[in-house]
Amino acid sequence: MKLNKIALALFAVTAAPLAANAGVTISPLLLGYHYSEGADDDQADLLKDYSGNGDSYYKEDGLYTGAALGIELTPSTQFQVEYGVSNTDAIRQDGSDSFDAEQEMISGNFLIGTEEFTGYTDNALKPYVLVGAGRSKLDIENRAGDKVANSTDTIGNLGLGAMYRINDALSLRGEARAIHNFDNNWWEGMALAGLEVVLGGHLAPTVAVPPMQEPVVDNTPVVVVEADLDSDGDGVPDSIDACPGTPMNVVVDERGCPVPVDITDELKMELRVFFDNDKSAIKNQYKPEIAKVAEKMREYPNSTARVEGHASKTGPSARYNQRLSEARAVAVKSMLTNEFGIAPNRLSTVGYGYDNPIASNDTEEGRAMNRRVYAIITGDKTMTVEQTKDMVVQ
């Protein structure tokens, strides 16, 4: 139809320069209820049958579907081009309803936000007033598709609505609108709702810049007082700082010197040595581990070690395995004493035979795990350090 072509052309012309700008609005689907029965008599006087047989028609209320494209002129006002169609039935004055009615409307509307006058807020609800004008084309056809009456008229729009901003890109829209037919002097009504999408985000309100003020000249002489410097930033002036150059995170006393504090460092270490069947000789692969234990015990002079020997459930007797487990514990102690210089009184040994297995003695793998020495090394040492600001002192 001709109005369809006009609508598409206007949408294309409007969209082209707007696509690259912020504040471009699209309402891809507007749904509404189009009320027109209040103008029944006026419609019947206008919509005469082409055949000249005296029949006349009026359009019933119906569903309105449309779309709109616009651009924000200010943060609360925009101009939109809207195209929509109302599809419903037409009634002949004799009561017959076997006619299809389609009313196409295209209009340009200004949506003027009330914040334009009251001031901008952060509220999600944005009321507005709608004012606009356009063209309406009404066609009435019989069920066979033959056109029996039509009218093309100038219309004006006046409405109240509100946008509810979900975020900076999406808003819900609701509106009540009055439509005036200027050519035939009747009113119609519409209630519609839809979703509005904003490309590039909404325009931001302009921030007022305070007026320039002349500088005030004060002729009062300025007295410059030379402050006592604190070069290392420890809170103690250089003039009384007995320890200049203190690191920033160190706690200092009233003379600017670091505050000493004693901290206790605890040691807890474990050692595991595994043996061949019926052997108490230490294999070379475990000597580096024993050397690490000796190094830590020298670092913590009060540390002690409890060395436990164990055996698998093999051999001629439980007594034999008991002695074997003791021999394994003594072998580890002897290496710590003889090769690494750890005092014997800091080492204790005990043998458990096969009483404390860590794996099943029914498999070779399990028995290999049970032929072991397990040592626990514990101790502590106290050190005096400079207290830092992030240190928790007990």
Give the proportion of residues in helices.
10-25%
Strand order of the largest sheet: 1-3-4-5-6-7-8-9
Architecture per CATH nomenclature, i.e. the level-2 architecture of the largest domain: Beta Barrel
Give the overall shape. Answer: elongated
Number of strands: 13
Largest sheet: 8 strands, antiparallel, barrel
The helix tally amounts to 6
Molecular structure report:
Helices cover 18% and strands 41% of the residues. The chain is elongated. By secondary structure, the protein is α+β, with helices and mostly antiparallel strands. It folds into 2 domains: 198 residues, Porin, CATH 2.40.160; 127 residues, 2-Layer Sandwich (60s Ribosomal Protein L30, Chain: A). An 8-stranded antiparallel barrel has the order 1-3-4-5-6-7-8-9.
For the structure shown, list the relevant keywords.
394 residues, alpha+beta, Porin, 60s Ribosomal Protein L30, Chain: A, 2 domains, eight-stranded antiparallel β-barrel, four-stranded mixed β-sheet
